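Supplementary Note 3. Input sequence used for the single-chain structure prediction.
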Amino acid sequence: MDSDHDGSSVSGRKDAWPQSLNRPAQAPETAGAIPRTPSPPAGAPPPTGRGIAGLSLPYQVVAALALSLIGLLACTQVAMVFLHVAPSNTLSKQHGKTIDRWIYPEFEQNWKLFAPNPLQQNVAVHVRADVVGVDGRRTTRWMNLTHEDGKGVRGSLFPSHVDQNELRRGWDFYINSHDGENRPNGLRGDLSERYVRRIAMLRLSERDYGGTIERIQLRSATSSIAPPPWSDEKISTRPVYRVLPWWTVTPDDLPARDAEPNREESRAVQGTDEAHGVEESQ
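The predicted structure, written as discrete structure tokens, is reproduced below.
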């Protein structure tokens, strides 16, 4: 071993062992070690926080008051809306005017707590007809179309959409497009009239009245639902009628199976009249 050591010295190369022994000891570097944060110099101001804590004391007071006011207004709004839409209770009865002044008109809620404006009335649509037969002209009795639809719904596991909604939606369509004097209030008025007349003629065509229906008349019977036995509320359940004028039946009001013969008849009459006009002109 001495020869080897001497050989390395003779060749002019320096031995690494003495250098490694003379180096100062260093801490081993580990993966993911957190670097040390240098301490602030002496006399520097303390670091400020974030958010409200970073503001000065006067601004902190103003921010706290603003947040408290916003929270109070939000809680008041939620409470007022809840009392407005909730069923009648002690608070809403005692402070009803205050609640209304808060809600109307900006925060009006046109819905109830558990259902949007639940219907509290029964509306039935009736129809009668002027029939011309071999024994002359006669007027039929009122036919309750709503009752007929009700019979198709009761006891049926899968009731028809027509029985449930056709007449009801058609009548709502007419009411919403006419005023109290049955005058149309827009372009949809004539469309709603033709729609209701076709529904009525579709139902009347299912019956044999022994003649031709020339005119029809509709009316609605609206009656309020009686309150429960435990309620002291007094409501009249007598029906209120809205009677529409008589409508002359045209071929467009008839179902498809009955409309074609009437159209052919009207064309024949029109052709005869035109022929007579040509003869008279000649």
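The chain has a mean pLDDT of 78. The first strand starts at residue 121 and ends at 133.
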